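hey so u asked for the seq, here:
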Amino acid sequence: MLLLALILGGKACLVDQKNLKTICNFYQQAHSLDEMMLLGTERPYQKILKVVVDLGGFDWAVLFLMDFDSDSFFVAGSYGISEKEFGRIRFDEIEDSPDNLQLSLRLLEHAFRKFAIKGALAGAAIEKNDTFYGCLLVGRYDPEAVLTEADNLRLSILSDQISISLHNYQMHQELALRAQQLDESQQQLNRELKMAKIVQESAITLLPPQFPGIVCSSMVRPARFVGGDFLKFYPDFENRIMSVLVGDVCGKGVPAALILSVVLCLFQEKRDLWVSPEKLMTEVNHALKEFLGPDSNFNSSAFFGNFNVSDRYFTYASAGHDFPLFYQRNGDRLIPLESTGTLLGIFSESTFKSGKLQLEPGDRIFFYSDGLVDFFEQLENVEDGFQMLQNFIFDRRHKKPKLIVNEIQALVEKEKNELKDDITLAIVELA
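ran it, structure tokens below
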């Protein structure tokens, strides 16, 4: 008869071809014990221990697991024997051992004496990756029975499979808990972002005011939930002066939104002093740099201007902001309004200059952020978005401001790619 040499548990055994099928079947069924989802079913340990008894040829099996809350071993499940035969075993009842196998043997010996278990019995450690979970005890009722080397080998294989199942299940539970915690954190973050969006929208001007002598339209579209662009109108109906503030804090998202709030607060505070635009920029820059500190990398562009409707002129100062486009109706031309100073928050000693324009009815100024330039570059796959923006605006110079804003909004909404930056646009025309 053909003999085959197999390595079982590190020991060489000779088996004939007749028993080979039986051995393969044993391994196949034993591997079913490492199915971690079995532990999520009702009375999982009873099912596992039934397989142990059936495959190992034992009369009974009981599984002790560690409970660190009560510092004891408890019976997680049993088969072929009542769980009432056993009770908890406190850790201090067993002599401590650094070796898990020795600890299992001591637990087996202690259980044998404490619960007066008769017959043949054996135990194996349930451990994986240096983590000790407990001990698997098996036995036969016959007082004359003995457990053979083959019994111990089967017990070792079965306990290894249970160890894998417990270890994988624990990892699965930990990952599931972590996923739940992450989901709860994300939901909390979303709630906070919604609140931040509400606060931010209340701070900036989403709808321009109805101001006599001025036609105005605007849009603000953050690239993320909250953004770093800001737009604010300050109407003074009594003196017939409307001020416009537009700017862009470096960065995007929540950090930019926080700095944005500071910048707006500073402009609100300093603007109340009714200083000239260049003086206002100087005051805000100094206060912002003092707030951010010398090591901060945050900065912000800003453009502030006053429309004096009665005298028909516009005074302004710019802190490194994208050049607004002044459309002069009589000359039928676009004039970029260059910056009159550095970005806010970089140098506390920065100074700024003012510019002044004489306006005529039909003249208009286009305020925007660099996100609109980036959008035109992305839209047409070109490098010079600023030139494209000028062409776009000039070609529509005879359209009403609201129609131009609506057209740009429609283009932004139709864009399938993610926006690179926040987009802000305001068009102010002297009626």
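The CA atoms of residues 221 and 413 lie 10 Å apart. Residues 1-15 have pLDDT under 50 and may be disordered.
lmk if thats what u needed
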